[in-house]
């Protein structure tokens, strides 16, 4: 352990490295403040050493029947030898076992259990279970059984990395004797290298933070078990919101090409209620160390290749005695690995409020800043960051932007956190910038177009675009609030694909969408809305706060769009696309999803809002077309084996297919589930519930549990069952319907209907039943289906010509109607 000597800067520790000669080098280092702008050499050395460690042959033990238990995991080292890793900062953070053992794994929560079941039953499209695990080493699930909630197997090796106290648990084994590590050393180093390249693995950062802050929330435990010739990973990272991940990351050649295949992911058991639904404090779950309140930034763009940022970040610490302060900041964009070149971000300087240079380390898309004095909780602090970046993305011959979903300036917390922003953007004339916020200043200065944009509300993902634009501004006056909102439209003025001819139409449609969404969801959250044209054929949009980037087809004539998009599944119809991006100002910004499983609260609700708009302007036929598209997409997403709650973990042999699965689960199945909520509650209660949800959490982060609670309060009925089967469960039911009729004593007819679902995959449903009794419109009754083989009776005045289910597609199901029986 580190030992405090004369204050937060002076630490005495032993740093053990493994240099090229294979010798162990013990370095005694006294940390002192670094004068001038500089990388913190000591923190950088720990970063680099963490995954370079080897085994310490003098710390080895023969083991027998040693048990190691973590959340959802039990490892039993039955017989073999355990070697410990060389210490780092005086601590042992790794070990390697060779011998015989048994591992048992379970999952927590409804979604976690269902994801594991999908894997073990062969429904997880990304995992060829059991893959390279021979049948004779797998103990559970046993051959032929249908229970897939536990995995148990024999293993022959385990690679460990940890800072959660495993070294103390096994301390009695460390002094057993000296044994040549041999092949264990080779295996340990190889697994170390593999772990280094796993996406999201920030163990070295968490280790540094734990050592230099003493905060236990950064502890971690990693076990990779060799089962047959397959390596199965269990990762428990206390710094993550969702702490546990189980899966594989087979090498695809070079480390940077590695892909991960998820078996399941879940939180600690204490975070779930007795029904397996996540039910914890969101802020505690996210585990932030800082609360950033404001970012003031100047951006200089002298060319279309590189730019510089000068950012003042104001925050308050949320932890005691914070001497090392972490931020997210990408090292490189677009090349798949932070060490590679291509689109680098070079952090040049970090200063405190008085202008004193502070030492830092910028690695693996993180910045760690060493403070001159520890920060107290609530102590408002401002740091200044200066960096050069090569992260500009060219959109057209005349426009460029920065991908705002990456932390291209210093951020902290889940999704980078939320903060007010005041930024000045300087672009070489004749280019100009359009950004999130209200425009408070425009001027020309030494050949540069200078604009200043201010967002007083705390927001996430602010962004900007720059280029040559023609612009117009209109005023939308809100009928709900009386506020006047500036609507700016910015289009490419040059070339065949110029969008200037449709700027007025785009502005008019934007105001129509604003009017409808304010009626449905409440006031527009910001003072200004800017809409900008991207390239034709981009095929997507983005919606930073107060700002829309739309694919170029939305700005050209319908004829030209059709000509350009003949191979596009979307075609030239962009009204729903426009409305989807606009809806993100409510779903994604006014309320921001607070956990990985809750991203559907942004995308699915924006997609459904777009369908509401389409229904208003083009009628039910277009709405039904969207329902059909969602159903087809939901069926495709079902092939992943994962529920909406696990969509971000959906995997496939092809990365493209994996992306398709995630999109289909979040956008398509998610939107259909929103439609079922609206159908179940009725349109009025649904909108009342949505407004209550948005108003209650305006400006904050939200979860599906919050949505459920707010909807239950408005509807006056429990909805846990609904979310359990549609959000946490993957399968779409097949519903088989048959019926018979017979004369009744009163001269009418008695219909007996039967609705059958697979007993292992049935859902509670509310299904509309349609009866053709010879009138202009069919009669409709709603049946609450409460069992897998459900029978109902209906008294009818005449013998129906036809009976069928769910004509308007209100239920996410594969409907099969048998002939009359």
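^ structure tokens above, recovered residues below v
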């Amino acid at each position: 352990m580190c030992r405090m000597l004369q204050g937060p800067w002076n630490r005495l520790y032993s740093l053990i490295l493994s240099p090229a000669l294979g010798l162990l080098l013990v370095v005694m280092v006294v940390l002192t403040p670094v004068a001038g702008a500089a990388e913190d050499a000591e923190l950088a050395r720990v970063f680099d050493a963490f995954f370079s460690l080897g085994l310490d042959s003098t710390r080895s033990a023969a083991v027998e029947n040693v048990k190691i238990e973590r959340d959802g995991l039990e490892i039993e080292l039955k017989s073999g030898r355990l070697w410990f890793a060389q210490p780092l900062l005086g601590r042992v953070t790794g070990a390697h076992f060779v011998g015989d053992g048994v591992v048992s794994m379970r999952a927590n929560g409804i979604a976690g259990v269902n994801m594991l079941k999908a894997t073990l039953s062969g429904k997880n499209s990304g995992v060829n279970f059991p893959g390279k695990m021979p049948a004779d080493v797998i103990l559970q699930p046993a051959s032929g059984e249908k229970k897939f909630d536990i995995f148990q197997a024999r293993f022959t090796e385990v690679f460990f990395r940890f800072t959660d106290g495993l070294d103390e648990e096994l301390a009695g084994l460390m002094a057993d004797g000296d044994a040549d590590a041999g092949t264990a050393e080779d295996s340990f180093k190889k697994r170390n290298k593999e772990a280094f390249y796993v996406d999201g693995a920030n163990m070295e950062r968490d280790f540094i933070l734990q050592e230099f802050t003493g905060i236990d929330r950064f502890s971690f435990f990693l076990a990779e078990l060799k089962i047959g010739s397959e390596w199965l990973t269990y990762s428990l990272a206390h710094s993550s919101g969702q702490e546990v991940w189980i899966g594989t990351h087979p090498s695809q050649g070079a480390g940077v090409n590695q892909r991960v295949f998820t078996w399941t992911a879940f939180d600690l058991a204490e975070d779930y209620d007795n029904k397996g639904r996540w039910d914890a404090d969101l802020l505690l779950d996210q585990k932030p160390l800082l609360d950033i309140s404001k970012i003031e930034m100047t951006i200089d763009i002298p060319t279309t290749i590189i730019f510089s940022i000068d950012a003042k970040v104001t925050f308050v610490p949320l932890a005691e005695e914070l001497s090392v302060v972490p931020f997210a900041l990408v090292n490189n964009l677009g090349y798949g690995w932070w060490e590679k070149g291509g689109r680098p971000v070079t952090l040049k300087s970090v200063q405190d409020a008085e202008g004193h240079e502070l030492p830092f380390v910028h690695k693996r898309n993180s910045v760690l800043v060493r403070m001159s004095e520890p920060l107290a909780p609530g102590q408002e602090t401002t740091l200044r960051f200066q960096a050069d970046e090569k992260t500009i993305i060219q959109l057209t011959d005349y426009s460029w932007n920065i991908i705002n979903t990456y932390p291209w300036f210093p951020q902290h917390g889940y999704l980078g956190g939320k903060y007010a922003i005041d930024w000045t953007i300087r672009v070489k004339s004749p280019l100009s910038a359009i950004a999130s916020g209200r425009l408070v200043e425009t001027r020309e200065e030494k050949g540069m177009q200078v604009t200043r944009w201010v967002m007083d509300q705390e927001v996430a993902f602010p962004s900007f675009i720059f280029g040559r634009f023609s612009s117009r501004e209109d005023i939308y006056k809100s009928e709900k609030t009386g506020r006047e909102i500036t609507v700016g439209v910015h289009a490419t003025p040059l070339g065949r694909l110029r969008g200037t001819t449709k700027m007025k139409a785009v502005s008019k449609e934007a105001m129509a969408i604003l009017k409808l969404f304010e009626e449905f969801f409440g006031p527009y959250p910001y003072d200004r809305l800017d809409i900008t044209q991207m390239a034709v054929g981009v095929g997507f949009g983005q919606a930073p706060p107060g700002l829309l980037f739309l694919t170029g087809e939305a700005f050209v004539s319908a004829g030209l769009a059709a000509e350009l998009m003949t191979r596009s599944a979307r075609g030239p119809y962009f009204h729903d696309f426009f409305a989807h991006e606009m809806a993100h100002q409510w779903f994604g910004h006014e309320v921001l999803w607070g956990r990985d499983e809750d991203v559907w609260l942004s995308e699915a609700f924006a997609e459904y809002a777009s369908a509401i708009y389409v229904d208003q302007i083009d009628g039910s036929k277009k709405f039904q077309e969207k329902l059909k598209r969602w159903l087809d997409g939901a069926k495709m997403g079902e092939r992943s084996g994962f529920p909406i709650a696990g969509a971000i973990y959906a995997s496939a042999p092809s990365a493209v297919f994996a992306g398709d699965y995630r999109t289909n689960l979040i956008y398509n199945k998610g939107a259909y589930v929103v439609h079922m909520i609206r159908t179940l509650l009725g349109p009025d209660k649904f909108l009342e519930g949505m407004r209550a949800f948005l108003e209650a959490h305006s400006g904050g982060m939200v979860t599906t549990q919050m949505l459920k609670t707010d909807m239950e309060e408005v509807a006056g009925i429990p909805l846990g069952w609904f979310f359990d089967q549609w959000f946490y469960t993957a399968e779409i039911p097949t519903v088989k319907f048959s019926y018979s009729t017979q004369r009744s004593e009163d001269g009418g007819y008695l219909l007996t209907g039967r609705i059958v679902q697979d007993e292992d995959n049935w859902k509670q449903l509310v299904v509309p039943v349609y009866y053709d009794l010879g009138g202009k419109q069919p009669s409709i009754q709603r049946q609450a289906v409460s069992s897998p083989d459900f029978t109902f009776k209906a008294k009818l005045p005449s013998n129906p010509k036809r009976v069928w289910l769910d004509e308007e597609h209100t239920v996410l199901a594969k409907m099969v109607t048998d002939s009359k029986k």
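Residues 551 and 561 are 11 Å apart (CA to CA).
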